[in-house]
Amino acid sequence: MPMGEEEPMELEIKKESPSSKEERERVEEIVEKNLNRVIEILRAKDYGIIEPVKSIRQEVKEGLEEAPEVGERRGLETRVIGFAGKGGVGKTTLAALFIRAIGEEEGSPSILAMDSDPNTCLPEMLGSQDYETLGDMVEKYRGATLPIQKFRQEFASLLLRNEQEGYDLLPMGRSEDQGCYCMVNNLLRSSFRDEVLKGSYAYDYVVMDCEAGIEHISRKTSAIVSDLVIITDGSQLGMNTVRNIREVGRKVKIDIDNFYVVVNGVEDEEIIKDVKNLSDELKITFLGTVPYDDAVKKLSFRGGSVFELSEDSRAYSKVKEFVRTMLSRDQK
């Protein structure tokens, strides 16, 4: 595309992680400045800007995400527990049960429930009321740029507006403009470090319901996770997802302290044995099996909250055991 006689614009993305909050903000400001400049040039020449801006933002995002993630959580006290697996294995339900169980631990720990699946099912399983998604927040910026400081302020305000009984809520949602939605990921990561995982207002735990499949691993949006619980139903596809998550995690060098596997709703001993063997092969801790629970099944069908389950629920009793096991293990 001809750009006339304007001074050439150069944008260099170095493959190194910014070492401080100030350095990250400097990099973000450079990116923002160049994006604004491209927009101005295109508008001056009567070009349509929707597709070019989306393309540029995606290239910037991919360039930043190529930076190594080793040490991503160094110095952070918040424990981030992610739930992954193929679609339909019950990861959202188990994430909600874990949130309830952690909240009942001694000391009433502070918890942020984060739904990074664009389908936004976790709030319903928790019985959340009157909440706003991150996608709702950024929708106003669709087709425009994202002012960095304003985003950070609105992000902090969103957490306050989404306070629930016993936990705070952060559903990602999805903006209709996929380019805008992708651009948010880098700002969200830095906001997490500086607003959620650090300082006197940091949460004790963040419980994250990840997207189904392995894309969140390959894109490194799970880089802040300290403990990853992979849910499987024991099917061949479910087992392949466990293997793929582990192998892709190694390939992109995501620094996760503890990997776990949980079999959900399966009582066939041969299937459970196969999952145990796979866990041993991949050097993943096998937590155990959550038994089929009719009360949990009914909740899923009628849209109830996991907080409605009785204390002696088969599934919830087992989840409480898993929580005690996991929380007794140290982070690196």
Which radius of gyration do the C-alpha atoms yield?
Answer: 21 Å
- Give start-end ranges of low-pLDDT stretches: 1-15, 49-71, 176-181
Q: Major β-sheet, in short?
A: 8 strands, mixed
Just name the CATH architecture of the largest domain. Answer: 3-Layer(aba) Sandwich
Tally of structural domains = 2
Give the quaternary arrangement of the chains: single chain
Q: State the CATH topology of the largest domain.
A: Rossmann fold
- Rounded mean pLDDT is 78
User: So what's the CATH class of the largest domain?
Assistant: Alpha Beta
What does this structure look like?
It is a single chain. The chain has 332 residues and is of the alpha/beta class. It folds into two domains: 21-65; 79-327, P-loop containing nucleotide triphosphate hydrolases (Rossmann fold, 3-Layer(aba) Sandwich), CATH 3.40.50. The chain is built from twelve helices and eight strands. It has an eight-stranded mixed β-sheet with strand order 3-4-2-5-1-6-7-8, with helices on both faces. It is globular, with a radius of gyration of 21 Å. Mean pLDDT is 78; it is low at 1-15, 49-71 and 176-181.
What's this, in brief?
One of its GO terms (molecular function) is ATP binding. Residues 11-24 have a biased composition (Basic and acidic residues). With 332 residues, the protein is of the alpha/beta class.
